[in-house]
Hints:
Blueprint: H1 2-11, E1 27-32, E2 40-44, E3 49-54, E4 62-67, E5 72-77, E6 83-94, E7 102-116, E8 124-131, E9 136-143, E10 151-156, E11 161-169, E12 177-184, E13 189-196, E14 204-205, E15 217-222, E16 230-234, E17 237-241, E18 249-253, E19 258-262, E20 270-273, E21 278-281, E22 289-291, E23 303-305, E24 313-317, E25 320-324, E26 332-333, E27 343-348, E28 353-358, E29 362-367, E30 375-377, E31 386-392, E32 395-400
Antiparallel strand pairs: 1-2, 2-3, 3-4, 5-6, 6-7, 7-8, 8-9, 9-10, 11-12, 12-13, 13-14, 15-16, 16-17, 17-18, 19-20, 20-21, 21-22, 23-24, 24-25, 25-26, 27-28, 28-29, 29-30, 31-32
Amino acid sequence: xxxxxxxxxxxxxxxxxxxxxxxxxxxxxxxxxxxxxxxxxxxxxxxxxxxxxxxxxxxxxxxxxxxxxxxxxxxxxxxxxxxxxxxxxxxxxxxxxxxxxxxxxxxxxxxxxxxxxxxxxxxxxxxxxxxxxxxxxxxxxxxxxxxxxxxxxxxxxxxxxxxxxxxxxxxxxxxxxxxxxxxxxxxxxxxxxxxxxxxxxxxxxxxxxxxxxxxxxxxxxxxxxxxxxxxxxxxxxxxxxxxxxxxxxxxxxxxxxxxxxxxxxxxxxxxxxxxxxxxxxxxxxxxxxxxxxxxxxxxxxxxxxxxxxxxxxxxxxxxxxxxxxxxxxxxxxxxxxxxxxxxxxxxxxxxxxxxxxxxxxxxxxxxxxxxxxxxxxxxxxxxxxxxxxxxxxxxxxxxxxxx
Length: 403
C-alpha cells in the first residue's frame, strides 16, 4: 500500500487524471438522435457528468464533453436537432451534437424529466419541482427558446411538498400531455397523475383510484399515433387508459416503472425500466414481461427504442450500456470506449498487478504501470463489490460491501 501512496503523491503534480479503463460505468438518459439514427447520446451518473456519444448505434462510445457544478437528470433533442439537458438549478443546450454547451441557471428549480415538442424545434417541456417560498411544489415547465427561459405552472400545491417525476407529450397531437409525480402530506405519500389537452396551459387530475397508496408516478407514455391510449407507472403498478385518461385499468404489478416508451416503429411494443431489470409489452401495454436476460448492474431508469426499427433498443445501468436487437426481449452489453467506471477500492499487489474494484463491475487487474490493459478477476463473493482491498505478499484481502 505504501508504494501506491507514493505513486499518488508523485502524480499529483501532473494535473488532470485520465481514465484508462476498464470499460463500463454508469450511463443514464440514453437518447437516439432524430437527425441520424446511428447517433446515440448518454450522460454519466455523477459529477462532473460526462457526455458520451456513439456514431454507430452503440457499438463504440466516446466521451465528448462534460457538465460541472450540477448534475443533469435528463436530456432530450428538439425537432431541429438541438440537445437540451437539465437538472438541479441548471439547463444546458448544444447546437453542435453535444461537443459544446451553453448553460443557464435558475434558483430554487429542479428539472427532472424532459420532452421536446415533436415538430416545433424551439419548444421543450419539463416536469420537476420549484420552491415557492414555503415548500417545494410539483411544477410543469415550458420553454420556447431551447430551454434558455421557462414558464412555470404549479401542478400540485397541497401537502408539505410535491415532486414531479415524469412527462409525456403526444407525438400525433402535442396538445395532449401527461405528467406524474407525488405529494408528501406530512404523514404519507400520494401519487399524482395529471393530463393536459391544451399544450400544458391547464391540467386536470386523472389519477387512477387504484393507485392510492402506491407512492409515486415514475413513468408515463402516450401511443405515438393514438393519443387516447396512455400508460402510467407507479412504484408498484402500470395502468393503461384507452379513453384519454378518463378511466384506467391496471395491467401489471411490477416495481418502479420508469421511462415508459412506445416503440415508434411498432407501437404494440412498449418498454419500461425497473432499476435492475426492464419490462416489455407486445400488446401496447395491455400485458407485460420482466426482462433480465443480458442485463447487469442497477439504476436502470431509461429505455430508448429505435425510432424506425422495432428490433433495436438501448438501455443503461451502473455497469454500462446495453443494446437489444430483439425489441427489448434480451440485451447485450456494449461498453467499447465507455470509460466511466466508479472506483470503490484499489491496491498494488506484490505479484506485479494493480487490483481495482469498480461499482457493479466487479474486480479487475492490470499489470503495474500505465494501467491500460485490464482483465476481469472472478471472485466467489455474492455481493460483488468491495470497499477496501489490502495485500500481504501474494495474498489479496478484500472487505465486502460498496461503502
